[in-house]
Design a protein that fits this description.
Blueprint: E1 3-5, H1 15-21, E2 30-32, H2 42-45, H3 51-60, H4 69-80, E3 91-95, E4 100-103, H5 115-135, E5 145-150, H6 154-163, E6 169-176, H7 182-189, E7 196-201, H8 205-215
Parallel strand pairs: 5-6, 6-7
Antiparallel strand pairs: 1-2, 3-4
C-alpha cells in the first residue's frame, strides 16, 4: 500500500511515513494510490464483528507491510479502551418499523466525535516512533514529532486527550481566549502531562489558525 499527495508532487510513500509526515511537502493531503479491495465474503464474514474487530480489519487494508494484523489489533484495542462503552459507537434504534437509527459518537474521553480518530492516531504516532528509535544507530538523534493545532474547542481537547503522555510526541494547541465553552477549555487546560502545551490567544479562532498557517509557511 502506497500513498500520493493530492497535489501530485509526492508519491510512493508508505503508511508509516505519511502518518508521521502529516501534510505532504507540496501542501497536499496523502491518499492511497489505489483503493484496496474488500474480501469477497466481507458482507457475511464481517457482519457480526464488534467495532474493534471491524476497525482492525478495515485499517489492516491500508497499512501495507508497515504493521502486522496483530499490531493493528493491539493498537485498536488500546485506543478504544478509553471509551465508556464496549460498542465504542453504538447504533441506537429510534424506530425499528421505519428502520431509523442513530449512531452515537460521543462516548470517547472528550465526548467529541473526533475521539474516534484521535485516540487511535496518538497510539499510531507512539508506535512508529518507538520502533524507529529502537532501530536507530547509537549516534543518531531520537525521532520525535511536534503537533501544532488551532481549535475553537472540540478539536483541541480531542487532540490533547489523544496525544497526552505519548512518548516523543509534543502537542501545542492554540485556542481563542474566552471564546471556547467552559467545559472544552477545562478539558484542555487541566491536562497536566508534560508533553501538552495550551496557548490562549487574544483574538478569534481565525487568528489562531493564521498563526498555525504562518508556522508552516
Amino acid at each position: 500500500m502506497k500513498y500520493r499527495s493530492t497535489r501530485g508532487k509526492a508519491s510512493g510513500q508508505s503508511f508509516e511515513s505519511v502518518v508521521l509526515e502529516g501534510l505532504a511537502a507540496d501542501g497536499g493531503l496523502y491518499i492511497p494510490e489505489h483503493l484496496p479491495s474488500l474480501p469477497a465474503d466481507w458482507q457475511t464474514a464481517w457482519a457480526q464483528l464488534s467495532f474493534p474487530q471491524l476497525a482492525t480489519e478495515l485499517i489492516s487494508l491500508f497499512v501495507g507491510d508497515d504493521m502486522t494484523h496483530a499490531e493493528v489489533e493491539r493498537l485498536v484495542a488500546k485506543s478504544y479502551s478509553t471509551f465508556d462503552t464496549a460498542q465504542v459507537t453504538p447504533l441506537v434504534d429510534l424506530d425499528k418499523a421505519k428502520n431509523t437509527h442513530i449512531l452515537e459518537l460521543f462516548h470517547g474521553p472528550t465526548f467529541a466525535f473526533k475521539d474516534v480518530a484521535l485516540q487511535f492516531l496518538g497510539n499510531l504516532f507512539e508506535f512508529f516512533l518507538e520502533r524507529r528509535n529502537a532501530q536507530k544507530a547509537a549516534d543518531e538523534p531520537t525521532h520525535k514529532i511536534t503537533v501544532v493545532g488551532a481549535t475553537s474547542g472540540d478539536t483541541g481537547s480531542a487532540a490533547i486527550y489523544g496525544l497526552r503522555g505519548k512518548k516523543n510526541v509534543s502537542v501545542f494547541i492554540l485556542h481563542p481566549k474566552g471564546r471556547v465553552s467552559p467545559i472544552q477549555e477545562a478539558q484542555m487546560t487541566t491536562v497536566l502531562d508534560a508533553n501538552v502545551h495550551n496557548l490562549s490567544i487574544t483574538g478569534t479562532f481565525d487568528d489562531c489558525q493564521d498563526i498555525v498557517k504562518q508556522l508552516f509557511g
